Amino acid sequence: MASQHILATAPSQDAMLNSLLELVRAYNARIPRLYAGLNSFDLDATMPLLLNLPSAPLACREPPAEFEAVNAHFSAQVHAFFHAVRSLEDMADKQSADELDLIRQGEGLRPVVIRIVNQSFDIYPDCLHRTFHTRRLTVKNPDRLPLLTRGTQLRVFPDRAAYSSDTAHMRPVSLRTPLELATRLPHLRELDCPWLWERLPMAFASRAARRFARVWEGPWRDDRAEFGRGVRHVMPFLLPSSLTKARLWFWKPDPGGDETDQAAQMPDLVGASSSSSTTEFDGMDPVSLGLRDLGSRLEELDICALITPDLFPSGGDGLSWPQMRHLKVEFHPCAPDGSWYFSGPRGEDPHAAGFAITREEHYPPGQEDDDDDDDETHALWSDEQDEYWGDEDIYDHRQPDMFRTLPIAERINPLLLAFASSLQQQKMPSLQDAELFTWLTWRPSEERAQEYEGSDDAPPSTDDEETVMFRWGVRYDAPQGDGKGTVTWQVGEDWRPEDEIIRAFEDLVGGDGENMEWKAVEFVGEREQDPDVYI
Questions:
Q1: Which domain of life is it from (predicted)?
Q2: Domain boundaries defined on the chain
Q3: What are the tens digits of pLDDT across the range 10-29?
Q4: Which phi and psi angles does 275 have, rounded to 5°?
Q5: N or C: which end of the chain has fewer CB within 10 A?
Q6: pLDDT tens digits for 412-447?
């Protein structure tokens, strides 16, 4: 690569093919013939090494040209990988019956796995502006990728996601890239993306750390719009008809809570993006709309996302999910328009709406106009490090204010009603089960904790600093045979949805309320998480 700050070897299709062949030959040498052959194709997509030379140190912020070089390297890796796998498929097609299979036979899934490796440096910069990345990687000319006829599952996720929720040095991938790659697997059955790199603002105690790690609101909104456009591009003709199952988790929940400041105003991510007109998505959330369109093709859908009621098929738009059998939706307590579905136990809701995003205030500065702000941030960081005497690293010190545990009726009820209405048999005739839920966390700021001290309003806690979490939601199990279905609520003892919602769910299970269960919430210190999801 041309830049003196970038060190990388050009991706080679032949080298990748040889690596695959060495792998399968070593595997076949120790495995019974019945199980011979690769059953997955894996790419660890590495980033070029960035050189922070003492004689020519890296710029504080990544220049656009440098990112383009990194992105070109990533894109070339994906192209070389697809061509190498295609060559292996061609070789497997020409094998004689007495040869050990290069690719395993059978009906099981054959994953195509792309893990995105973190950015690395020869000497890590002192400045943390390069620690958190905003620009998203893309694959150039995805329509020129060869078709992989043996791959039946596509997995795309960060390399170290199984071990940490930390986004430091993690390069995100465009939300439409997995969709574009899916079009190159004509027999694809599953699309699995357990973390699509969405992250929410972190409540660092350090003001400088909050600046370094800022989730720039403009690109965040634009990325979500790209997902909506990506779905429209691949549907209905480019996405394989064989695709029946998808897991799309936009953000990765932290087992102990997301450590956010729920009193801070959130951005309106639904407003028109910098590259769209106000009518492109008719004022609706592009992620919710995209997921709704995908759902019309699937049998199983597992979502973790910021959503609106637009996710669910309504009676008036003609959309339905005729093949859906299993639906699992984890929604974030914050809606994508910046409002919240929940308030504090005493009705605290500091900001009723999200703030508008502008080009001037909510996009990263360019190289030519960031010096003053950067110098101020560097000075602040230096002062904070000098003053900080904690046992943990200043970067690890957080001051979250997580207090939203009470549903706001006028916001949560439309979501619940849209969910209930979408489950009607004429819209989902194949449905077996569906659930809509979120996780709520009580980890208030010191000031808020003092206000609630000795009160029964807050969730129970044995320690003022202990995080208390609980699952909140509703589940529907469709009737089996001649029986009736069941609805299970887990929303707390003191709250109930409005009558219209109760009736909508009663209609699903017979109308008499006998098959509706109200389950007590369970307070825990952290939620369970399966690390195998990210391996």
A1: Eukaryota
A2: 6-534
A3: 999 999 999 999 999 999 99
A4: -115, 20
A5: C
A6: 999 999 999 999 988 899 999 999 999 999 999 999
